[in-house]
Amino acid sequence: MAKVVKTSITDEKKIKEILEKEGYFNIFKWCDSEGTKYPEHTHPHYEVRWIISGHLQIIEDGKTVDLFPGDRVESVANTPHSAYVPKDVCYICASR
Fold it and tell me: Dihedral angle at the C-alpha atoms of 46, 75, 88, 11, nearest 10 degrees?
């Protein structure tokens, strides 16, 4: 299951600085509107999503993880998952 870390950090600049120091690349901000759905898919790299605002759900192995501002979720490469946006959300994406 994806690893979730609860932080109180929602500042985009600070999040990007932290991820760069940790060796992440392809760091960018992404926003989705309420009701957006992503069907099951995988990523070829270890991935992180760090919530700035809103609410994102990640579904992996039939289990739903609710993510809110300050939450950081890390997913192992090639892990099947889907996603749903219950409330407009913005987050930082990065790969390693």
Answer: -60
Asked if residue 86 lies in contact with residue 57, where contact means CB atoms within 8 angstroms, the answer is yes
CA–CA dist 79, 61 (Å, integer): 9
Instruction: Give the span between the Cα atoms of 65 and 5, in whole angstroms.
Output: 12
Cβ–Cβ contacts within 10 Å for residue 37, how many? 11
How many CA within 13 A on the CB side of residue 19?
A: 28
Q: 19: helix, coil or strand?
A: helix
pLDDT in tens, 28-65: 999 999 999 999 999 999 999 999 999 999 999 999 99
Query: In whole angstroms, what separates CA 69 from the centre of its chain?
Result: 11
